[in-house]
Specification:
The chain contains 18 helices and 9 strands. The chain has a 7-stranded mixed β-sheet, with helices on both faces. It has a two-stranded antiparallel sheet with strand order 1-2.
Length: 524
């Protein structure tokens, strides 16, 4: 199900996402390094969306409603972090992931609650401090009740409902009630909003805990009844569509569980703002590149001050590609690096470009028409984490400005290494972090403020180039990425900074296959 019902509040929802991301960036690094901040689909936008839609329901669009949505989401994130902390911390082996410990997530939760106070002050909505603090207190009481009964089978339906009421429903109820108060809703309609919020929260809480869906049905019925009595219009239609999507399962409710993560790459996976209406990072990145495909090359040239051409040439030089070689360009986009590889491989060579965005590939194929390399280049749609070629197929593999965007960087690197022949090179061109004083500050300002603005002028929205900035901030430093190359088994790893460290080219060589040990002949 597409989230078209969010179009009415898209701009404000983007503002909330950016405010959340700014709050998560600290001097110690992105808070996703220290606690689980992953949000899937509904988790990322349910609470902000109902607040913002309530404002639109009563034609209230002042900035205060955005701040209210922001602080409500901070409360939700803080509670979600604490929910994930295991009751028995000893069951996390050696604390391989610090996010699965107790101390760091608690500190992150406390930090987010601190930001909640700041948000109330900055948004000039301190009148909501008392009711929201009361909700937080009740949520913590629910958490204590849940933990007191941890490990016991949930046979007491009354107990489960009580915990869900405190931990989940009170926040959605309070969010809608306060949004209605802020928007100037009449008392009768504030009561309807409160009723709708409570029942929506109860139904959602039952589903996210994996309880019998039949338990949620009475709450869905009451929520539908309440919303049907609110003022008609586009905002109510959007709220009904949201409710219907959750009820029907078209908007799946992600399970809310404690537990460890499957792996840990500090500061990366949670680093970029992924709007909640997208199912996952891959879906969002695909939408970004589809939106900018037509102007991607020209904008890159402008925003890089025409340095991107040299960056690509250096990348290809570092592959060591020779005439007649076979090369793979992963996340090839519109084929700029692919074409440079084809120039080096010559008519006897073969170059394959792979990308998951068909709109980009269409432009790449169009660029190739009539060129001298048309017969030696092939473009295919595919996944960087599941490259459709046998082991040891290519003499080298490149990835340009793509490693930052894949959902699993380690898996993508493993795949590139797998399809390269022993002795072949894996080469990555990616934005990096300048270290030269003064230039570093100037560049950070340019990337933070100017790039999103210029990108908006080029494609009509700053979203894609704001994502570029956020994903760059969360991406590993040059030395960290070199270490990751080593951990994946590459040898002779190194990196080369270009244009003062604006980008870096990382190189690693796939080890030669171990020599077979000769077996001595024996006489009969």
């Amino acid at each position: 199900m597409t989230a078209g019902f969010l179009d009415l509040i898209r701009s404000d929802l983007d503002s909330v996402n950016l405010m959340i991301e700014k709050a998560l960036m600290t001097k110690s690094g992105h808070l996703s390094r220290f606690a689980h901040l992953e949000t899937k689909s509904l988790q990322g936008y349910l609470h902000p969306a109902v607040v913002l839609l309530t404002g639109r329901l009563f034609r209230y669009t002042e900035k205060k409603i955005v701040y209210l949505a922001y602080v409500i989401q901070l409360i939700y994130l803080a509670a979600a972090i604490q929910f994930r902390i295991p009751d028995n911390i000893d069951r996390v082996p050696d604390h391989e992931d610090p996010r699965d410990s107790a101390q760091l997530p608690v500190l992150v939760g406390d930090y987010l609650y601190g930001k909640y106070f700041v948000g109330l002050s900055d948004g000039e909505i301190l009148e909501f401090l008392s009711p929201l603090s009361g909700i937080i207190a009740e949520m913590n009481c629910g958490a204590l009740e849940r933990r007191k009964n941890s490990g016991l089978p949930v046979t007491d339906c009354k107990l489960a409902v009580t915990v869900i009421e405190k931990e989940t429903a009170l926040l959605t109820q309070g969010a809608l009630k306060l949004a209605g108060q802020l928007a100037g809703a009449p008392e009768a309609e504030k009561a309807l909003l409160s009723d709708f919020g409570f029942n929506l929260g109860m139904a959602y809480g039952i589903l996210e805990r994996g309880l019998d869906p039949d338990l949620a049905e009475p709450y869905f019925e009451k929520a539908h009844s309440a919303i049907g009595k609110l003022p008609a219009g586009e905002a109510r239609d959007s709220m009904e569509e949201l409710l219907d999507g959750i009820h029907s399962g078209e908007l799946p409710v992600p399970p809310r569980t404690t537990g460890e993560s499957g792996g840990f790459l500090p500061g990366y996976e949670g680093g970029a703002v992924i709007p909640g209406e997208y199912g996952d990072r891959e879906e969002y990145v695909h939408s970004v590149f589809t939106a900018i495909a037509g102007k991607y090359d020209s904008l890159n040239t402008v925003l890089s001050f025409n340095r991107d051409k040299r960056w690509r040439r250096v990348t290809v030089e570092k592959t060591g590609i020779q005439a007649g070689d076979r090369a793979l360009d992963v996340c090839c986009g519109t084929g700029m690096i692919t074409t440079e590889l084809a120039k080096k491989a010559g008519p006897q060579g073969r170059v394959v470009g792979i990308d998951f965005c068909e709109d980009m590939l269409e432009i790449a194929r169009e660029n190739l028409k009539g060129s001298a390399y048309e017969s030696s280049v092939e473009y295919i749609q595919g996944n960087a984490m599941d490259i459709p070629f046998p082991d040891n197929t290519f003499d080298c593999a490149t990835i340009g400005f793509g490693l930052r965007n894949v959902p699993d960087m380690k898996k993508a690197l493993k795949e590139m290494i797998r399809v390269v022949k022993p002795g072949g090179r894996v080469v990555c061109l990616e934005f990096s972090k300048p270290t030269v004083p003064v230039f570093k500050q100037i560049y950070n300002f340019y990337f933070d403020k100017c790039v999103p603005f210029l990108g908006k002028l080029g494609v009509g929205t700053e979203g894609p180039y704001r994502y570029l900035h956020n994903s760059w901030k969360a991406f590993p430093r040059q030395d960290e990425l070199r270490e990751e190359f080593r951990r994946q088994g590459l040898r002779d790893t190194d990196y080369y900074e270009l244009t003062g460290g604006v980008v870096s080219v990382h190189v690693g060589v796939k080890p030669l296959a171990p020599a077979l040990t000769p077996v001595a002949a024996t006489k009969e």
